[in-house]
Design goal:
Blueprint (H helix, E strand, L loop, with lengths): L3 H4 L16 H5 L2 H10 L8 H14 L3 E7 L3 E8 L5 H4 L1 E3 L5 H7 L3 E3 L13 H5 L3 E8 L5 E9 L7 H62 L3 H23 L12 H9 L9 E4 L7 H20 L9 E8 L3 E9 L13 H13 L3 E7 L2 E9 L6
Parallel strand pairs: 7-8
Antiparallel strand pairs: 1-2, 1-6, 2-3, 4-5, 5-6, 8-9, 9-11, 10-11
Helix pairs in contact: 4-8, 8-9, 9-10, 9-11, 10-11, 11-12
């Protein structure tokens, strides 16, 4: 697939006023575009000579003091490479969108040519003019392989400048080279990520195989205390093991449900914990019916199953009267999931050793869900708070 910069010609690059009906923020916040940007693995990464060589060559060819490879999300622009940028921007390698011309290249999905920024109504009030010294700007879109605009290769002059057709064609050619480097780095990132995920899955399988025996034994022991007859015992333990299997099926197929309604966090939690809550009295769940996607469901399942497993082995669910309250609440930006155990054995504080299960739980919360997890080792019962950005739940 040919990139946009490969096919651009000077007659397509003339400056034009922004379409008043153009939804600037909608494009910046487009989920597919942001996912394509995330998949490059380039945001917040160190300087790279493979990009720096291209920006230096661009600077020399066009005779401009500043050249940037700018990657734009919905809040900021990150400079994967920068030549000639003044401090403190050269060190921090990013600016908020209040200092960004490149956001308009992304939002318009086409090049931006500005000979004199102070007299251009689109950017005249942009803080990049007084703070970064931008007077003339030429930006070419940088696209992913599927065409999403990730940012801009831009040339900046500190005095007004009439950009020539040759300037525009040269910058478009360099933008194509930068795109090729982005595509190569994205592929490397995807391969590395896949390898890490395979290692995590392998470790998880090993962990589960070792752990499943103690889980089933705990369920058997707990069921045996509650049932005086063999038929009742067999029925009880069979139902709990089947519930574990149903929870697995729900997670695997959550992104393509056969039901008319999409899977929700509330339903997922009910399925996950039904194996530990056959009488409906041991685990109390209070959650909104917030939609959840396959990636988030998998991460939530790993976390909740780990907490429930530990509660069966060591916590509130290891004794007949122990309880678990699982409460979920959301605000405009975040879902907070609180796990609180009570009426179980006294908690003696955090464990002295962190096992694979705890590491996996943290990775699931902070890596897959891009959230946070905190533990409260209160004597009366373990408390765990997981905070998840709302925009991660549908993924």
């Amino acid at each position: 697939m040919r990139s946009q910069s490969e096919t651009e010609t000077p007659d397509r690059l003339a400056p034009s006023p922004q379409d008043p009906n153009h939804d600037h923020n909608a494009i910046l916040n487009d989920a597919d575009r942001l996912l394509a940007l995330e998949r490059t693995g380039l945001m917040d990464t160190p300087a790279d000579q493979r990009f720096d060589r291209l920006t230096r060559l661009t600077s020399r060819t066009l005779g401009v003091p500043v050249v940037l490879v700018s990657l734009v999300d919905n809040e900021r622009q990150f400079f994967k490479s920068a030549v000639g940028l003044a401090e403190p921007w050269n060190t921090c390698r990013q600016t908020p969108l209040s200092h960004s011309f490149c956001q308009y290249v992304v939002a318009e999905e086409m090049p931006l040519v500005i000979p004199d920024a102070r007299n251009n109504p689109l950017v005249a009030n942009n803080l990049a003019i007084p703070d970064l010294g931008v007077e003339a700007y030429l930006g070419i879109p940088l696209r992913s392989r599927d065409g999403a605009v990730l940012g801009s290769l831009c040339a900046i002059d500190i005095t007004p400048r009439e950009w020539t057709d040759a300037d525009i064609v040269d910058l478009a050619d360099f933008a194509h080279l930068v795109e090729e480097q982005i595509h190569a780095q994205s592929r490397i990132h995807q391969l590395v990520t896949s390898g890490e995920q395979r290692q995590l899955v392998s470790g998880e399988l090993t962990h589960r195989i070792k752990n499943i025996f103690s889980v089933v034994l705990s369920l058997i022991r707990f069921s045996a205390r509650d049932r005086s007859s063999l038929p009742d015992f067999v029925q009880d333990i069979t139902a709990r093991i089947e519930a574990l299997a149903r929870a697995h099926d729900y997670v695997v197929f959550s992104s393509t449900p056969t039901q008319e309604q999409s899977p929700t966090l509330a339903d997922l939690l009910q399925v996950l914990l039904s194996a530990f809550n056959s009488d409906g009295q041991r685990v109390i769940i209070d959650s909104p019916a917030t939609a959840i996607g396959e990636k988030a469901a998998t991460a939530v399942a790993l976390i909740v199953h780990e907490l429930a497993t530990n509660a069966v082995k060591h916590g509130a669910l290891s004794v007949p009267d122990g309880l678990v309250h699982l409460t979920c609440c959301q605000d405009d930006s975040e879902m907070t999931i609180v796990w609180r155990e009570s009426l179980g054995p006294a908690v003696k504080g955090p464990p002295s050793r962190t096992g694979f299960g705890s590491k996996m739980t943290k990775i699931s919360a902070t890596g897959q869900l891009r959230g946070a997890i905190d533990y409260d080792w209160a004597e009366a019962g373990l408390g765990v708070e997981i905070r998840v950005p709302l925009d991660q739940l549908p993924l």
